[in-house]
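Lecture notes, continued. The same structure-token format from the folding unit now serves as the input rather than the output. Read the line below as a description of shape only.
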């Protein structure tokens, strides 16, 4: 399955993801295709809505201490519900749908979730540290929420200005490339 990452400010990122009821070949194919796209872009988390499939599925691969991401650490999370949350932590987050931008975001330190795996088995997971942050970031995606929505008014303004400039530069360098190719 060919997938592309949807980037801000695309409105599709604001869709609310639908609860998954069919744990069939289509779901498995989608999950299987999300994994390489996340790994090839140095991601540690990806929600299905970020690849234009607004259904409640997300994948995570938290790196080891040496930064290596092992396939055996891949977590596939379907229909997550956060059942408890406490504490506070701040981490510099990034998002594959908001390239080149990183900001400190406040989250809960510890969470517990109920979810299903790709075969509809029900699971419970207690998470802290980076895993907890990543789950909260991805669960936000399922609700159409981006980490930049959590910025203060002034930080958000600064972000919009910088992001617009980056998009403009990207467009210009693409045009230059086309001209050079044609020359
Ligand atoms: C902590 C903070 C955020 C998360 C959510 C998951 N976020 C990511 O996986 C972000 C990945 C990312 C990768 C980038 O590198 C490439 O695209 C090659 C990147 O850099 C650029 O866009 C240039 C930005 C973000 C979990 C835990
Ligand atoms: Co994200």
């Amino acid at each position: 399955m060919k997938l592309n990452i949807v980037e801000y400010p695309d409105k599709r990122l604001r869709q609310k993801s639908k609860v998954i009821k069919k744990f069939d070949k289509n779901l498995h194919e989608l999950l299987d295709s999300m994994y390489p796209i996340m790994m090839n872009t140095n991601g540690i988390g990806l929600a299905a809505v970020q690849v234009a499939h607004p259904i409640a599925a997300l994948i995570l691969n938290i790196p080891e201490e040496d930064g290596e991401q092992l396939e055996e650490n891949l977590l596939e999370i379907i229909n997550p519900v956060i059942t408890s949350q406490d504490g506070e932590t701040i981490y510099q987050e990034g998002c594959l749908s908001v390239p080149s931008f990183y900001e400190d975001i406040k989250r809960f330190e510890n969470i517990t979730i109920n979810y299903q795996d790709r075969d509809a088995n029900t699971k419970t997971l207690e998470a802290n540290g980076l895993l907890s942050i990543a789950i909260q970031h991805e669960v936000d995606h399922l609700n159409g929420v981006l980490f930049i929505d959590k910025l203060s008014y002034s930080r958000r303004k600064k972000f919009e200005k910088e992001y617009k400039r980056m998009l403009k530069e990207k467009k210009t360098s693409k045009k230059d490339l086309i001209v050079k190719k044609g020359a």
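Point for the exam: The chain has a mean pLDDT of 96.
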